[in-house]
Amino acid sequence: MKKISLFITSFIIVSFEIFALGGGTSNADFLKIGVGARPEAMGEAFIGVADDANAAFWNPGGIATIDRWNLTFMHLMWYQETYYEFLSLVAPVDNFTNIGLSFNYLGVPSFNSTMDIFNNKMDENDAPSSYDMAITASFARNFGNLYTKDFTIGNISAGANITYIKRELLGNQLPGFFLFDLGLIANITESISAGLTIQDIGSSAGEDNTPLSVKFGASYNFILSKEFSILVCGDVNKPVDTKNSDYKTWFLNLGTEIKFFEMLFLRGGYKIGNSDESFSAGVGFAFPDLFSIDYAFSPHRELGDSHRISLSIKIGEKIPRPLIGAPKPPEKVVAVAGDRVVSIGWEPNPEANITGYNIYYKEKKADKFIKLNKEPIMEEAKYKAVLNNDIEYEFVVTAINNRNLESIYSEKVVAKPTKYAVVKPAKVTGVMARIEGGNIIIMWNESKGKNVVGYNLYYKKTSDAKYKKLNKTILKEARATLGGLSTGVEYNFIVTSIGKDGTESDFSESVRAKLTGEEEYY
User: Fold this and answer.
1) Are the C-beta atoms of residues 335 and 415 closer than 8 Å to each other?
2) What are 100-141's pLDDT values in tens digits?
3) pLDDT at residue 388 above 70?
4) Would the N or C end of the chain have less CB density within 10 A of its end CB?
5) Cβ within 8 Å of residue 437, ≥6 positions away
6) DSSP strand E in 224-353: where?
7) What range does the domain containing 7 cover?
8) DSSP state string for 402-433
9) pLDDT at 185
10) Average pLDDT, the chain
């Protein structure tokens, strides 16, 4: 009976503590408590902002924007020594992918006002504490830009969370369960971003639903100067768990952040529809690219004032993120070294508005890349760099579009020129010419080399001294149909194979063809 009395008393207090946040009878309701001093000070309007490690909680798609290791810790001081901790670590995997790991912990300490069945006050050491805990793994990917005829949506990022919930009530372990979150965020313009999340998808081990909700947010960053900007943001929150007393309620959160010199931040927010909370405020101090300290104050009508303190630390070198509207970096970049030369090749970008490519290099021990080409390379996806032998170099390639925006660097490739010659692709064999329907068709044997990515076709009139290349882009098939050639003129054709690094084979045997009105082979 003593344990039953203690259980009932504590359950009522813990339930009141959480449900006062906005009502409901859902399991894992502690996840309704906002984390991070910065988001809280901005009225929890963070779905369309989500640009720091707090994004793992608010919108997992947002962690893809973080360009270096980011660690944040929050401590919430609440009433009756109740406390809430949040720890989040986000790490870049590459230019487009981030992962994260976060930890939420709500602690309800033991208390000495509980009475046993004989109406005697229990000793505090005899009353066990309670807690709610969540461990979350996050993943996010930047999918680049969406181009339409009239506008571009930039840096579309999607993310997901998987969260394990563990609870203990008065020393009694409750069954654990998993929840899932989905998040999306994108830049509508350089200043406007929008986000969407579906939070707490899943089912708990008990009869209650999880606090499932759908949230939409947007933000606008007024950049008035290099030293001063104002960020305004708003979120709409709709609970979906049908057992929640606020199921039919729409919540609106509004917030702002004023930034001075990248060092001082003043924040404010207001919550509409929440019966226990209204305004919030806070301040932040930052040492750019190192760390920041943030504070948030939120008064509660039922529970009194709450105070959040956060410490965020940035670790390591920046991993570049794509510019809004910029193309993707070139893929399948290779570099093959020869005697005082390195041949760099890449796969042409699929975007239709590409106007050229830039090639950068550096010695492996150097800090910065240097551009090799004076003008963007467009006609061919290859470049030959003349360099010193016996030095190891790194190479990257970028793409440029018709808005003069440059992609981030491609993946690095390494090559070391030596006195040994480059191994060329095998010479093309079986070249033949056929006249059909007023066209000359050139065919050849398909190369069996794994390194070959295509072919070049050259021609000249019998009276010419040099061959000229016919194709503007690499030919993928072992044939080409040529129209518009002059009748009665004899042409000579040769074919070469192209390696992944842009290295070209020796010329094939030449074939002759002349349009005479008759179909024939040569």
Assistant:
1) yes
2) 999 999 988 765 555 555 556 555 555 567 889 999 999 999
3) yes
4) N
5) none
6) 228-239, 251-260, 264-272, 279-287, 291-300, 304-315, 331-337, 341-347
7) 2-315
8) TT--BPPP---EEE---SSPP-PPPPP---EE
9) 97
10) 86
283 by Cβ neighbours in 10 Å (0-12 / 13-18 / 19+) ranks as middle
Residue in 246, 240, 302, 244 with CA at minimum distance from that of residue 27 = 244
Closest CA to 270 of 7, 33, 41, 499: 41
Q: Which of the listed residues 315, 350, 380 is the one where a domain comes to its end?
A: 315
Can you tell me the distance from the alpha carbon of 98 to that of 66, in angstroms, rounded to the nearest whole number?
8
Six token digits for residue 240: 């979906």
CATH number, domain containing residue 483: 2.60.40.10
Give yes or no: residues 337 and 307 share one domain. no
The residue among 438 and 21 whose pLDDT is bigger is 438
* Residue showing tokens 């504490």: 129
Same structural domain, 49 and 128: yes
pLDDT of residue 110: 67
Residues 269/272/277/283 CA torsion (nearest 10 deg): 0
Angstrom CA distances, 206 to 19, 168, 177, stand at: 17, 13, 10
Q: Specify the number of domains making up the chain.
A: 3
Give a three-class secondary structure readout of 37-93: HHHHHCCCCCCCCCCCCCHHHHCHHHHHHCCCEEEEEEEEECHHHCEEEEEEEEEEC
Tokens at 28, concatenated: 């894992």
Asked if residue 322 is part of any domain, the answer here is no
User: 13-60 pLDDT, tens per residue?
Assistant: 444 444 344 444 456 778 889 999 999 999 999 999 999 999 999 999
Instruction: Tell me the C-alpha to C-alpha distance, in Å, between residue 27 and each of 57, 167, 313, 323.
Output: 17, 10, 33, 41
How far is Cα 384 from Cα 256, in angstroms, rounded to an integer?
A: 52
Nearest to 119 by CA among 10, 11, 4, 5: 5
CA 138 to chain centre: 12
